[in-house]
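User: Before I run my own analysis I want an independent prediction to cross-check against. Here's the chain; please return only the structure tokens and, at the end, one sentence I can use as a sanity check.
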Amino acid sequence: MGYRVNGVRRLIGIGLAGSAMVAAVSLVPALPASAAPLNGQAATGTYLALGDSVAFGYVPPQAVPAPDYLDPSSFVGYPEDVAQALHLKVSNASCPGETTASFFVPGAQSNGCENSPGSSVGYRTEFPLHVQYSGTQLQYALKYLALHRYSTRLVTINIGANDVFLCQETTADACASTAELQAVLKKIQVNLAIIYALIRDVARYHGPLVALTYYSLSYSDPTQVAGTEELNSAIASVTEKFGGKVANGFAAFEGPSEAAGGSPCTAGLLIKLPDGTCNIHPSPQGHLLLAQAIEDVI
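Assistant: Structure tokens:
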């Protein structure tokens, strides 16, 4: 199974209308019961990590050594690196393939979290996540923040790239038109605004909220760079309106990639595959750079 959740080949996606705010608020009473941090290092406070496969630390099956999908502790992403550096106990609720819509709407189309185009099967239906919960990732987040109101020191999120991939996979022109591009960016922004509003106003979390932006898969390809920057700009603008900070994942990979001819693969920032190419997900070295980007803004 492939859970292509990070990197931005170009741009596009699927989201929800603004009226979904009402529906999302109505879901809050159905919060899951289990919300205690189940991984990470106990220390001076708690940290909630949200997002897609980048936050999860996803490793593809072609990697050597092959990952153990039945053991979520074997997947280490930037949240675990941040937790160690800041002496926080992390609860990583991320799900490979999560979209901004499936993040808070039960049954919404994801790109491999609980379902995928044309299939009811997703990562979460087959394998355990870092923390186990019923309902949506946002429901878990709201419950977690309620239970850890006074100990939560940080919330991070990275999400939006799967919206892009999903539309590329389900449209005849792979979301090539300007109209499709603007539509997906708008939907990502609307969905993020709903997510942030519920975290701030329903969970009443007013501590550090950091959105990690996406890196480019090629810093020598102007189209790739422009697409990634457009997605990141959409994410950043909404995050800042809700008092959040933006960790620059794009810049974190830029210097080392440019030193390697514009390739994050050559720079060792992406997972190497046996055929000499790279998967789109960060290597351990890449995760460390993403973690540093978060640490830099807090």
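Sanity check: The chain has a mean pLDDT of 88.
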